[in-house]
Amino acid sequence: MNQITTNHVIKFSKATLMLFVSFFGLLVMYSNITDYATNYEYLSHILSMDTTQASSRYSERAIISPMLQHRIYWLIITLEVMYTTFCIMGTYYLYKNINSSSKKFHEAKKFAIIGLLIALFLYYLCFQVIGAEWFNMDQSQHWNYKDWAQHIVDFMLPSLLYVAIRIER
Description:
Elements: H1 6-34, H2 36-48, H3 66-96, H4 102-107, H5 110-134, H6 146-164
Helix pairs in contact: 1-2, 1-3, 1-6, 2-3, 3-5, 5-6
């Protein structure tokens, strides 16, 4: 019977963490595709800035074209598909190399790291920085993704650091 080592548990935890992120990505994609209208309405209000306190003051920032709003929404869905795909691939390669050398396991992290970086780009830069700072979504009482995005970033960033750091032996 093989004895479980700390090194094996660390490798397993990194692969499993990526499984969690992949599952989250699949659920988000499913929601955005199957309930397109509801999620589009959210984005439409954010981009048009029609429910922010300073909507008239910063109205030149607003994107009111429905065609452009739909394109931005499809860009968001595309980024979700990309990060989820990379995270799934990363999960697969981490599990596949769980009993390999630490060097080979470390090299297997590349897809997971790319996926997590795309997710951070989406949830931090797009939602928290651009959504909150440019479109003032944090001023809207109802159409506000800032706290939701913050919870995701609070999970994704430490996950990226943990997965990327080479502590396996």
